[in-house]
Design goal:
- It is a single chain.
- The protein is an all-alpha fold.
- It has one domain.
- The protein is built from 22 helices and no strands.
- It is 76% helix and 0% strand.
- Belongs to the NhaC Na(+)/H(+) (TC 2.A.35) antiporter family.
- It is a multi-pass membrane protein.
């Protein structure tokens, strides 16, 4: 039975976002430091959940089942476990001196003003190879933070470079779940979607790299003659994680292997005992508590919002505005973008909108490869920008609260440029032009 679309279904989500972002904005205007970290994000999500229980129809038992179903969604569980393992790897590696060694080695061999551009390229390579933006962020964000702190390069710009490169591959990789979902729902070949996608993503990436090289310079003067001490052995866990990630090894195996390898090196070097090694793992788990809870709660909220017709209302509202081929493409883009903003999961957003996008595309003669590319591009653009998305949450967690999402978002040049290219892609559709010419004739 098809869910009836209702605006009321979106209200709990609007409450969550308003409290989450509004508190940070208000406190920031009042001059409070780290304003976006004063109100714990899970509390804002909890407020949205309470409103959902009050506003939505059905018994408490039925609504609770929907909530638990969302919390236990496979994607949510995968993300939560990744958070824990990423926290543990970061904690153990830092405790045994791995971060300092990697950072100092990087400062020794890489010109400082190339660091942001280099991080973007590495992130793009890893995410394209593995098909996961989160895996790419987990692998390189700890090092990126250390490089930013030691080199004087803007932390926000450095993190934005990591995010941009990671979303490049998430959107483009042939093994990415978003790419698979987009091609399957539109019934097109992977290579056709890739060709349509690469014509937009590659130019956007090249422009971003140029901007990072030109503008990614340190904020202060750097002593180019300075020497940096590092231990090559302590760099090994990061190299192993990078190599395994590029090789496509399961992210759980990669992070677990990284934890154990860092632990062995720390024990051998005398950086900690077996007991302190265990404590560092647990401290890493604990450091991810807020992100873990927020992902769990927003997963449950998203399920309740969808069940109450909030997402269906979005679909119906946009569909009413579609009148032709060009508006059909803008409609597909708007649908997947707004759905992703509501559920904070680009794969789920594509799956929800896929059937409708295919129906709209067939009705208005939009090629499947175009609709597939638009679904993937706009879901990834939004997913990489929203402050409560898994990518942004885990990226900022490595900065230990020194950077807010609103410092990073304006610097996400790759996402912004890709959005501009995608809009031009729709506006310059040759088939649209030919249709207009035929009508004029």
């Amino acid at each position: 039975m098809k869910t009836k679309g209702e605006f009321k279904g979106l209200i709990p989500f609007i409450i969550f976002v308003t409290i989450y972002l509004g508190s940070g904005i208000v406190l920031g205007m009042a001059g409070v430091e780290m304003s976006f970290y004063q109100l714990p994000a899970p509390i804002a999500a909890f407020a949205g959940i309470i409103s959902a229980f009050i506003l939505f129809k059905g018994s408490i038992e039925e609504k609770f089942k929907d909530f638990i179903k969302g919390c236990g969604h496979e994607d949510i569980m995968v993300m939560c476990i990744i958070y824990l393992l990423a926290g543990a790897f970061g904690g153990v590696s830092n405790a045994m001196g791995g971060v300092d060694s990697v950072v100092n080695m990087g400062l020794t061999f890489i010109p400082v003003h190339y660091i942001p551009a280099g991080l973007f390229v590495i992130g793009a390579f890893i995410s394209t190879s593995t098909g996961t933006s989160v895996g790419s962020i987990v692998a390189i964000a700890p090092v990126a933070v250390g490089l930013a702190e030691s080199s004087g390069i803007s932390m926000a710009l450095t993190l934005a470079a990591v995010m941009g490169g990671s979303m490049f591959g998430d959107n483009l990789s042939v093994i990415s779940d978003t790419t698979i979902a987009a091609t399957r729902t539109q019934g097109v070949e992977m290579r056709d979607k890739f060709r349509a996608n690469i014509s937009l993503a590659l130019p956007a990436a090249i422009i971003t790299i140029i901007m990072l090289v030109v503008l990614g310079r340190p904020e202060g003067m750097i002593d180019m003659a300075a020497t940096y001490n590092y231990d090559v052995v302590k760099v090994i866990p990061y190299l192993v994680v990078l190599v395994l990630a590029i090789a496509g090894v399961n992210v759980f195996a990669v992070l677990t292997g990284g934890i154990l390898l860092s632990g062995l090196i720390g024990l051998f070097k005398g950086d900690f005992t077996l007991l302190s090694f265990s404590n560092e793992i647990y401290n890493g788990f604990s450091g991810m508590q807020e992100i873990f809870l927020l992902s769990l709660l927003t997963g449950g909220l998203a399920q309740m919002v969808t069940k109450a017709g909030g997402i269906q209302w979005l679909l119906e509202s946009v569909q009413k505005k579609i009148t032709g081929r060009r508006s059909a493409q803008f409609g597909v883009a708007a649908l997947v973008a707004m759905t992703d903003a509501a559920v904070a999961n680009n794969t789920v957003a594509i799956i929800i909108n896929g059937p409708l996008a295919k129906e709209v595309s067939e009705k208005y003669c939009v090629e499947g490869k175009r609709s597939a590319a638009l679904l993937d591009i706009f879901s990834c653009i939004v997913q990489g920008v929203i402050p409560y998305g898994a990518q942004m949450l885990i990226l900022l967690s490595f900065s230990k609260g020194t950077v807010t999402p609103f410092e990073v978002i304006p610097l996400l040049w790759y996402q912004h440029i890709l959005a501009v290219f995608a809009f031009i892609y729709i506006l310059r559709d040759k088939e649209v032009k030919s249709e207009l010419n035929e009508n004029l004739a």
